[in-house]
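Hey, can you fold this?
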Amino acid sequence: VQLQAFGGGLVQAWGSLKLSCAASGRPFSNNGMGWFRQAPGKEREFVACISWNGGSTHYAGSVKGRFTISRDNAKNTVYLQMNNLNPEDTAVYYCAASRRVLGSSYYSDYSYWGQGTLVTVSS
């Protein structure tokens, strides 16, 4: 079972990026999915999550209104559209699959993790 996140890179402030997380090894259509991030010197923090069917989403306050999480179960892929990026969004972004059908903001609810993709926002 593997989750692979990609799409990170260097972007200027106010720019946009779209991250993707492709799952392989087994379908995750019955799992909530989430995105977390870890900035240098800081702990990993919750960014966004989505329920198994995409019907429910939840965002951290710092990204609400700027980021959008979505999923395509046919492709076993989850996305994170990030708009109006600012330097505080610089971090390694990780996708994860929850043990629950709903997404969760709790790190401990996730059993599978991707390797992370680096997003750097310049001012």
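Oh, and this one too while you're at it.
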Amino acid sequence: VQLQASGGGMVQAGGSLRLSCAASKRTSSNNGMGWFRQTPGKEREFVAGISWNGASTTYLDSVKGRFTISRDRAKDTTYLQMSSLKPEDTAVYYCAASRTSFSGTVYSQYRYWGQGTQVTVSS
């Protein structure tokens, strides 16, 4: 499975962006999906996760109410809608496919990773 993340960019604080993660094979449609982010010198941080059928979602506390994860299984694409962005949301965002049908909050629970897309929020 190859994952291609896109949609990153530069936005002012309070703005919005939508990230997309396209999978190369339908294998990912039965896997949980997640979004992580990383800044220089820090460990990769879980941001949001969604189960294989979209029925269950999980969020980092600091993004609850601002970010929404969703997926379109027919298109093998997972999205992260980010609103009310803050400068502290600046990071490289990675999408990942879980080893199971459900998402997790730990890096090791994910088997496949996309290449990352940069999100920069200016104040």
